[in-house]
Amino acid sequence: xxxxxFNQTEPYFPNTFSGMLDKFFxxxxxxxxxxxxxxxxxxxxxxxYEIQLSVPGVQKKDFKVELVDGKLTISGERKMxxxxxxxxxxxxxxxxxxxxxxxFVPEDIKVEEVNAAYEDGLLKIxxxxxxxxxxxxxxxxx
Length: 142
Fold this sequence. Notes:
Belongs to the small heat shock protein (HSP20) family. There is one protein chain. This protein is mostly beta strands. It has a domain at 32-80 and 92-128: Immunoglobulin-like, CATH 2.60.40.790. The protein is 7% helix and 32% strand. The chain has one helix and seven strands. The protein has one helix at residues 17-26, and strands at residues 40-44, 48-54, 63-68, 71-78, 97-104, 115-119, 122-128. The protein has a four-stranded antiparallel beta sheet, with no helix packed on it. Strands 3-4-5 form a three-stranded antiparallel beta sheet, with no helix packed on it. β3 (63-68) and β4 form a beta hairpin. The protein is elongated, with a radius of gyration of 22 Å. The termini are far apart. The model is unreliable at 1-11 (pLDDT under 50).
């Protein structure tokens, strides 16, 4: 018996140009990927910016987060388990390998208060905003 995965939401031929390029350049004749791009959500409220990366299976020690000259770079690696003990894999859809994502951040953040936390497969980076100084002056009409 041959095990075949069926997934109607992910067709053999990608439905976007970007998906087609990813499939063409990243899938190397059935070998696992060496690099991948985790999904990212970016949000903002009145006090901070928040970046969330979906990277389940990565350990905290495997992340590197740097903020240099207004460029935030998040990198890491998801390692594939080497224990195969009698298992024959018919499909491996989990993305393994290294990743790196970079973002230019606004100038209005408090660099010394940037915080990164990893929980339940989500890396959450909080970039607090500086307080806006309201400059108010009474101007005399002459």
